[in-house]
C-alpha cells in the first residue's frame, strides 16, 4: 500500500527501502531511503486529526510567511505530490505526507546534557518568536481543545463514571491524585478567564525528538508541525518541563528513577527566554514555573482517563500500561511541585544571566 503512496510522489517504490521510524503514539512514521535520497513518510491518524487538511493549510500559511520574512530559517515543510497536494489519501481513507530528510541533521530521544535542553528550548522559543507578528487566528485548530484542561478534566470525570469497577479499583490512588492537585485546574481557570496570557503560535508537542540538531549538537529547527496552532506559551514550556527534566521518561515503570534535573530546568529557561524573553509579558513570566505543573498534570489526567476508557486513545502494550503512565506522571508532578521554590530562584538567576 505504501508503494501506491510513493507513486503519488513520482517515486518508484522498488527503488526505496521503507523502515518504521520514530516513537510517536499517534501518527505512524517511516523512513524511506534509496537512490541516495532519504525521506520521512508520515501517516496521519485521522481518528485523532479529524480534518487533516487543516494541517496542510496551516503549514502553507506559515511556510509562506517565514520564507518571505526569514528566508534563512530552516522550515521543513512537506513535499507536494505530483498533483500538487501536500496530503495524499490512500484507499483506506488514510492520509500521508512526505518530508525531506535534512542532510546532516540528527534527532535525539533523550536529553543527556544542558546544551541539548538549551538548544531545544531555544528552537521552540525561536519558532514562536519569528511568528510574533503573524496573526495566530489565521490558523485552524488542527485539534480542538487539545490543551484545554477544563475539557480534559470533564473527560476524566465522564470516564470515571463509565469505567468498569475493576479499573476504578485499580486506579483508586491515582483518581485521588487528580483531586489532590485540582488547585492546578483553579489556577488554569484564573489565567484563561482573565485573559492573562496572549494567544501565540504554539507548537504543542515539544518532546526532544521534535528538534533537529546538527552534528555539533546545535539546534537547527523544530519539526512535527501537526499541532502548530493558536495557543499559550505554557503548552510548550510545560511540555518541555514534562519531557526533559527527568532522566526517566513517561514509559518508565520503576518510578524511583523519576527525578528532577535542576540544571536542565535552568537550561530550558535560558534557551526559551533567550528568544522570547524580550516580548514575554509579566504574566507569562509569572506563570512560567506553573506551566510544568499544568502540563504534567494534564498528561497524567489524560493517561488515567484513557485507562478508565479501556485504552481507546493511546493504546496499550501490556495490561495496565496507561495506568502506569499515569502513576509515572503523578510521581513526576509531585517531584516538580516539591521543587517549585527552587525553580523560582533558578529562573530569576537565569534571567539575570541573560539580561546582565
Ligand atoms: C501524543 O503521538 P505523540 O507521541 O507525538 C499526544 C501528546 C502527548 C504524547 C504523550 C495528538 O504525542 O499530546 O503528550 O502522546 N499527541 C496527541 O506521549 O494526542
Ligand atoms: Mg506529535
TrEMBL record:
Keyword Transferase: yes
Protein name: Ser/Thr protein kinase RdoA involved in Cpx stress response, MazF antagonist
Keyword field: Kinase, Transferase
Family matches, as Pfam families: APH (PF01636)
Domain Aminoglycoside phosphotransferase: 18-244
GO molecular function: kinase activity
Keyword Cell inner membrane: no
